Structure formats: C-alpha cells, structure tokens
Amino acid sequence: MEYFLGPVIALLLGMKFTAYKSSAVEARIQALEERIEQVDKTNEEMPKKILAVVSPVAAAVKKLNQEVGI
Question: What percent of the residues of the chain are helix, what percent strand, and what percent coil, each to the nearest 5?
C-alpha cells in the first residue's frame, strides 16, 4: 500500500506546487507587460516634449548670435 500511496501523494503535491508557481510567474509576466506598455507610451511622447523644450532655447541662441554678430 505504501508503494502506491507515497508516489501518488508526491505526484499530487508536485502538481499543486507547479500550478502555484506557474500562476505566480503569469502574474509577474502580466505586470512586466504593463510596465513595457507604459514605457512605450512614454517613448512616443518624449520627442514632442523635447522639441517643445529645445525650440525656444534654439530660437534664443539664434537671436543672441544675431545680436552679437556671429
């Protein structure tokens, strides 16, 4: 009886542990995918923000260069 019951219990515990670990991994993958989507969204907006900041500075430098005579 022990020869049959021991492996069956071990198999059931192993299956339960595998299911637990796989659900934990799936949750972590989902969280990482959400973070990747946020980074992609930020990367799409970044050039617009940089252009909005650099344009006035470039115009000011150009005006300063004209006044100085460079």
Answer: 95, 0, 5
